[in-house]
TrEMBL record:
The keyword Cell division does not apply. This is Methylenetetrahydrofolate reductase (NADPH). InterPro entries: FAD-linked_oxidoreductase-like, Fadh2_euk, Mehydrof_redctse-like, MTHFR_C. Pfam families: MTHFR, MTHFR_C. Its EC number is 1.5.1.53.
Amino acid sequence: MVNQVQSVDSSWQSSKADSSGASNSSGESSKESSRCSTPVLDADRSDRLRDKMRRRIESGDHWFSLEFFPPRTASGAVNLISRFDRMGSGGPLFIDITWHPAGDPGSDKETSSMMIASTAVNYCGLESILHLTCCNQTKDKITGYLGKAKHLGLKNIMALRGDPVGADWEEEEGGFNYAVDLVKHIRSEFDDYFDICVAGYPTGHPEAESYQQDLRHLKEKVDAGADFVITQLFFRAETFLKFLDDCRTIGITCPILPGIFPIQGYQSLRQLVKLSKLEVPEEITSILEPIKDNDAAIRNYGIQLAVEMCRVLLDSGKVPGLHFYTLNREVATMEVLRQLGLWTEDPRRPLPWAVSAHPKRKVEDVRPIFWASRPKSYIYRTQDWDDFPNGRWGNSSSPAFGELNDYYLFYLKSKSSKEALLQMWGEELLSEESVFEVFTFYITAQSNRCGQKVLCLPWNDEPLAQETNLLKDELEKVNRRGVLTINSQPNINGKPSTDPIVGWGPAGGYVYQKAYLEFFTSSENVTALLKVLKKYEPRVNYHIVNVHGRNLTNAPDMQPNAVTWGIFAGREIVQPTVVDPVSFMSWKDEAFALWIEQWAKLYEDESPSRMIIQYIHDNYFLVNLVDNDFPLDNCLWQVIDDMFELLDSPAAPPCEDATP
């Protein structure tokens, strides 16, 4: 892995005060503490982007960042958020989202720059920079956009003049004509709230009178309050290194990140070069011309070229990080990063659930387990909370979960198309057993009767997690018989926090879990289950509810039950996941609604398939079970076996229906 440098350019270290007041002394590397989503267990540490950069520079850990642009369509927005999740797993320090004046970039549209950047921060947990340009905008309008960005949790702005709408730049009355004026305005109106990035041009801005004049303009932007610089793309490493030296010579001491563009296609290169008014060196065009119609060959060459150039930059000891222009594609950039050793998919999580990067959620370290597979929904439903649980969930009698009526929102929708969902879940359902099969195929990762693998369910938009795979055989058995599981975890007794499957939190700790099982099942099964559960009390806590609100539980005084906790050196015990009876009633509404919103609505009204899903929605119960004796073997499977044994027993008396 490329994480050691001989003599990293340290000029910035002396130019910015250490706002955190201390170096990294926790024993964790700065790479771990400065990934895109700052681990919540390090909430005492400054989470400003410029401080993350400083820590990485001081430690010699290289980083990378990624640029994306807003999509044009709603389906494109869904796909882009999925790409954020995939590319975010490699550990970018941040991403940035471009500003397109023609696309209503500051609006609430799902394709706007503002909403894409907000989603990246709030729902994907990615440190994000929002581009903002002066083009066709008044000072008041810009101030409004900055205020909105702050409200949405965005903390970083890339201040740009922007490209003119027409052939030439037209001055905006009551606006700004230069990026330096925008930087000054941000500092004037918002003081030090935002970290500010500005653009640098290794060959000089195409409209500048000279290269030297453009350098002076860059210094003006930095002196006005910019924290770091990202450059325009270039094709030779020496071009950037000369530019970097020239910047240092005139007193620009902040981090300067090279903009890397892996060539991925002939036409995309021509278009980008036209927009940036750059010339492609002859040694590159002479290779590209003969293969211009071979996309694979061009991509492979682009990867090779980018890797070679990046290695020269990193080996120089002057470049702490690389910024990649992805063009919203992932294959080439990910391959470059893998070859450089910068793509680091750390299986450990800061917490057992996906964290948000919104500043107000920085202290959050406890959530109900019910939303384990729907973290974006949980964040959406709690977005208006002023305070978030820290240390303990507490005994809240009425946590104010927002209603979830906006299933259509691009960050809450399944990333699979309607056609794909029908292929996975069935073009036509014949009975309840058809639904049992769908769940079973999801658990086993085997192809269904149509040869299609079931990769998601309404409650789980991803394939089965590694942790759940530990329970795969038992889950398959119970789903075949109509215990339709949507959430589960094995019991864990003191596994190292570095365990690749169940580990979370800082290295050197130990994690614990109580066995948990959550499922839908019929009223007949629930009647038998209630009889069986009597002999497992108080070891097993249960909560059973139907769509109408009939509520059966043995939770003492409706208290939350910690089902995941960790012990770490020098810290209090952390218990990030609970089973909370009150929150379960809010989750119940969402869990039942997903039968209709994401499954039943795939079919025509009054169709047999739709009526089957409607019947399950109306008549089944949602059940959660907790085995409190985590050091012992998980007893929940025996509970289910006993339930089926009671149902199958010929001598058993008729079960009373559990429906109201």
